[in-house]
Amino acid sequence: MRQTLAREVTNLLERGRDRQLRLAVTGLSRAGKTAFLTSLVNQLRHAGLEARLDLMACAREGRLLGARRVAQQDLAVPRFPYDEAMAALDETPPRWPDPTRGISELRLQIRYRPGRHGLLGMVAADSATLTLDLFDYPGEWLLDLPLLEHDFLSWSERQQAALTPARRELAAEWLEAVADLTPDAAADEAELAAIAERYAATLRAAREAGFADLQPGRFLLPGDLAGAPVLQFFPLPGIGEADRQALEALPEDSVYHTLSRRFAHYQQHVVKPFYREHFRRFDRQIVLVDVLGALNAGPERFEDLSRALATLMRSFHYGKRSLVSRLFAPRIDRLAIAATKADHVTPEQHTNLVTLLEALLAEPIQDLRFADIPVKALSLASIRATQSREVERQGRRFPALRGTTQAGEEALLFPGEVPAQIPEADFWQRQGFTFDHFRPLPRDARGDALPHIRLDAALDWLIGDKLA
Amino acid sequence: MRQTLAREVTNLLERGRDRQLRLAVTGLSRAGKTAFLTSLVNQLRHAGLEARLDLMACAREGRLLGARRVAQQDLAVPRFPYDEAMAALDETPPRWPDPTRGISELRLQIRYRPGRHGLLGMVAADSATLTLDLFDYPGEWLLDLPLLEHDFLSWSERQQAALTPARRELAAEWLEAVADLTPDAAADEAELAAIAERYAATLRAAREAGFADLQPGRFLLPGDLAGAPVLQFFPLPGIGEADRQALEALPEDSVYHTLSRRFAHYQQHVVKPFYREHFRRFDRQIVLVDVLGALNAGPERFEDLSRALATLMRSFHYGKRSLVSRLFAPRIDRLAIAATKADHVTPEQHTNLVTLLEALLAEPIQDLRFADIPVKALSLASIRATQSREVERQGRRFPALRGTTQAGEEALLFPGEVPAQIPEADFWQRQGFTFDHFRPLPRDARGDALPHIRLDAALDWLIGDKLA
């Protein structure tokens, strides 16, 4: 206990002198968190040597000297598997690193020379150190924040409303299993477990199908809680506020109260601890979004992503009366939102990619600006998998991409145009957009920095001011 | 918090009236924990009907009415997967249930009629209820208790001493990797992680080879801690008490201090919480031992099992000055020790099986008796996989077993004689003992109780007094 306190005080002092920064990376699954963090560490380690970081002021000015990994502070949080990720990229053929499955952490010490300061514009001679704590956690965990505003009854009602036709189809087996369950029946442990497992299967199937607005988030990555009653609840279809009094009067061992207790336990012992122990200590945050993937998957999935992002972004609504501020007093003071996999479209589409991202997140971005939290939207490719080319056809030149598809075929193609705004019905009818997934490019030499697009711009925004 | 307190008070009251009992089942991996717990639940659910429980007084007297599963109290502990286990046994061909991987829990309500009481020998008319909380946890976790007596230096010394020739051979890769690591070097995160992974691989290989005395136990079942620094330490060969002063004087970021910190964190945040939150609340305990498996595996493995059991049993040494009593004030008041898989030898060998078990655990049993904790040794088969037969050869009759081997072959065989005492060298030279693994017997009808040997004797000892 005393040790923890001493550590906290040291941390506070370090941060007070701008010597320590806690940067968190999140995104829904397959948004590209592992690739982003791998490349970020890789670029900083190669800073001053092979890394191309011209969009980072301190690298451009030759003041960024390098970085090394040091021991992290929280011994119970898995270390971000950087070496395993690099090994995957160095296989023949190269492959994308395995995704991480929960929170992970990595600490870097960055050496740099402070820039010109003060009235005389003197260059400080000595080098300085910034300790950068990196965190990576599933965006799905943030989807559980709104769950804290609900009790079991209102949450059940909300989940019913979220069942669009396609989601309803994926939930068919669960809906059938739950149809005969009445709130007043005596709870049968085994039956509830079986129905909960079907509900979890529904969520998994929805994720497979490209849906993103899935609650409770921990059902998708249960870890050590697999099989525990706290992960064995589900919304009860057909109940609503109108029945509240009658439901509350049911016996303690009824289905209704049993599921309510589990829901409350999930709020207290699964959702809140993440915010309390991790989230409220982050200084900076980047949210990664696979806009292109959603564009590929069709209108219902795109709509779903939009809803999921609106939910996810609520964790960054720092208005004084917002849920997250009231409960956890977080302190994130700068945010980046990035459309990843920009290398999967031709370069002249990148501007549209950013405007589309901004359109997708229009409301959350307005809220953040109103709350005076600096936020920047950008597009990037953490690890570039394609090369940009031009092809000539009938005397005209067209932009194209060259890369190796996941199936192992060399391809030269034009994936399509990215709409600059939320697509209208006619865009989906034209089906103007299909892109392949590409393998990572083989690296020329193992020592090389990873190729990227605008990762340096993201870095400049997220940590550049601390390297001034 | 208030809710927890209220729950604790209710529990205390229930227990005061002998209405609630917390029974824990443990054993090293493959000792048969899942089969035992599955059969126990199955027998009690069939009590009064098909189950054969003649060695249980209250069943013999017709007072045991039945049992049903009810909701467990700790929502964050996985439920024991009884239905999944029964489903495995009902497959064609039947298969053994999947092993559990951590702690799990299941609550039964047992209905019984109290027996004759008081001076008049009146039979109480009403039925009564005993709430039985069942817990299942890996015996490997108990092997970590002695770790609490050590600091990193003395633990390192102790682990070196445990490297017998065969263990040393299995550890060859790790020993090579750790050979160049000096305690005073600056800790390199990635290097320590790589060496720790090799150490964990060594432990896994040793377990595969039949060894049981393996520390730290959680390296074998890391769960959500996989990849966390708290599971990335290992003993440093070649250091010992003689160097203590010099080692302590090393810099904080040295290999020595980094590993020491992780070792201490493991003690505080991995080992102790299990004892504090679970172990000290158990009322009764059964320890399952696969004596026959060790007998099969040869002298070094048998010796290792003996050492592991001595370590494991230390958690039940309730002398006032014992480690576990000082730290956790546990309250287990009755203990059973059972040699499992008794159906894998012919019935006339069962007596020897018990005396061998008692010989193997002679010292722990003496300690328990000295501390006045009732302990009983027995042999049993939780789910019988063979039928006992006689074969005639040259006019004489021999006992034999009939069953289906794991390879699917019908077999009729005599597995050998179980020594009544710790085997001497000549037993191993004669290699007098080899037994096959058998598949579970197909059940005649799905509703049937599982066939067993003396599971009822274990039950009578463990809970019989509460059903009086």
* Strand proportion of chain A: 15-25%
Distance between the termini of chain A: 36 Å
| Number of contiguous helices of chain A | 17
- Judged by helices, strands and strand pairing, the structural class of chain A is alpha/beta
Oligomeric status: homodimer
Strand order of the main beta sheet of chain A, please? 2-3-6-1-7-8-9
Helix content of chain A: 25-40%
CATH class of the largest domain in chain A: Alpha Beta
State mean pLDDT of chain A (0 to 100 scale).
88
CATH topology of the largest domain in chain A: Rossmann fold
The count of strands of chain A amounts to 12
* N to C succession of SSEs of chain A: HEHHEHEEEEHHHHHHEHHHEHHEEEEHH
Major beta sheet summary of chain A: 7 strands, mixed
Spatial extent as radius of gyration of chain A: 24 Å
Structural shape of chain A = globular
Greatest interface and its participating residue counts: A-B, 34 and 34 residues
Number of domains of chain A: 2
What would CATH call the architecture of the largest domain in chain A? 3-Layer(aba) Sandwich
Low-confidence stretches of chain A: 118-123
